[in-house]
Predict the 3D structure of the following.
Amino acid sequence: MFTATNGTYDEKEKRGFIRLRVTALSMALGAILFVIVSLGLIVGLPLPSVLIGKTATPIIKYLRWPLLAGCCIVFLAMLYRHGPSRREPKWRWVTPGAIVATILWLVGSALFSFYVTHFASYNVTYGSLAVVVILMIWFYLSAYSILLGAEINAQMERQTAKDTTDGKPSAD
């Protein structure tokens, strides 16, 4: 992802070996934390509803999805801020792409899930490898949504820089 985000921002890798590895390790740890929190929201959050009662169950049931989307936006914003080899931008420059990428990822995942469930016959074509094929296609679609968010951020920054250097007022 670092190489891909460098490509969206038209940057060359300028970080040294140690700094790049530390950044990659911290992002990997952040991704692990994101997965743990996501699984906790999806699987673990409905469990307390048994203890709370029937009135809180619908609230908890629907509150977990916006929380999951919020966690995804935060993780993608961090990726967009620390991934490319450049000066770290302000948070306002990485948030729009993170929001668009999250919405696109959630909608795309739901549509792909619907397609796989109702129309595709991967099991007939691929047999026991169908799950691996479906997972790889989902990874592919997820990567494209993430890179589209990075491209949106990069284009917004370029346009604002162009407007500022042309003497026009900036978008701030």
In short: The longest helix spans residues 130-165. The mean pLDDT is 83. The two ends are 29 Å apart (CA to CA). Residues 113 and 119 are 10 Å apart (CA to CA).
